[in-house]
Amino acid sequence: MHVAPVGGTAVQDHVALAEIELCGELIIAASAARGERLSLESIDEVLRVTEERDASR
């Protein structure tokens, strides 16, 4: 078994951190939703998908 050394060797995966942040935002939105599920439009809004689509045009 390999154990990471303690102190000063932390590696940050920025893509993974961004994905974790987005998952957290979805969880918060889902817990606040009144319905059983989030609509696709709500998910897009939370993930800011439409903003990116509009910016790429």
Observed structural traits:
57 residues, mainly alpha, elongated
Report what the structure shows.
The chain has 57 residues and is mainly alpha-helical. It contains 3 helices and no strands. It has helices spanning 14-32, 40-47, 49-55. The longest helix has 19 residues, at 14-32. The radius of gyration is 17 Å and the shape is elongated. The N and C termini lie far apart (50 Å). The model has no long low-confidence stretch (mean pLDDT 80).
Describe the biggest sheet? none
Q: Please provide the count of β strands.
A: 0
What portion of the residues fall into strands of 2 or more residues? under 5%
Percent of residues in helices comes to 55-70%
Q: How far apart, in Å, are the first and last alpha carbons?
A: 50 Å
Mean pLDDT: 80
Shape: elongated
- What is the N-to-C succession of helices and strands? HHH
Rg of Cα set: 17 Å
Our count of helices gives: 3
Q: What structural class results from the helix and strand content?
A: mainly alpha
Low-confidence stretches: none
Blueprint (SSEs and pairs):
Layout: H1 14-32, H2 40-47, H3 49-55
Helix pairs in contact: 1-2
Short description:
The protein has 57 residues and is an all-alpha fold. It has helices spanning 14-32, 40-47, 49-55.
